[in-house]
């Protein structure tokens, strides 16, 4: 019986009246998303349906409204950050850096939520149109509209350098605050970190240690100077560890080495009553070791020590050999000569 049944064919007919898209669909949908972005930026996201918002953004992209969505996002974030920059600039004293830190944290949280809503746009439209991804767009706009703002840029640099200077002078500062700002600058890109902070930081450090070297060289003996230089190198290394980016360590170390050691080597080794010869004569081995360790960090340091030590050794040996009393007690003469050799060995 089943074999006698004829198979029925089905034909799908097109709609008699084709579905027409609302000509205002793109603009209406964008307004919904724009309102949601405003709510996110104003910390009122709890009442939003992220699933519905994602679907709206998805539909805009597949219905060829990706341009409207992306341009609208740019304009909305730009307007928001212009207002944020004004609020940051209005803060006073160290409150300026705290306000910047707070607003930066809020901006990152908001952009994360916005990126989640616009994930499909990020994956399809942004990729195909070679646009800046949402996360990077948020960073770029923050950099251009907040960090590079004419009222903020110089003030930011000045505040950071002032805190570092105060710490070098012995004051206690809020290291975590500086760390949050330098981390922000690195998140915006190494070039931003260098331009907005590191270049000026190294310049100010060079000026500071140049002055300090002159003060030390005029008030300290050689061992005291070496101990202070050693301490400064340690402090700057710790400073990098606590609130700078690691890329700054070799640069600031080079600045300290240049100003405190390289540029002061000869005055140090030639100091009367406490320079290299005096340390050798007094067997101050700890200080000699410190000098050796510090001088090895800079070009020509060991050569200078070697030259002066060789001159001193030859002078000492010559005095022993030419001593007119040496023939009176040859054994004592040989013992003194061997003692000098053992010492320098």
TrEMBL record:
Signal peptide: none
KW rRNA-binding (keyword) present: no
Domain of life: Eukaryota
Occurrences of domain Cullin N-terminal (ranges): 30-345
Bilayer-crossing regions: none
Alphabetical UniProt keywords: Isopeptide bond, Ubl conjugation
InterPro entries xref list: Cullin, Cullin_N, Cullin_repeat-like_dom_sf
GO MF annotations, alphabetized: ubiquitin protein ligase binding
A Gene Ontology BP annotation from the UniProt entry: ubiquitin-dependent protein catabolic process
SUPFAM superfamilies, per the entry: Cullin repeat-like
Family indicated by similarity: Belongs to the cullin family.
Name of the protein in its database record: Cullin N-terminal domain-containing protein
Organism: Apatococcus fuscideae
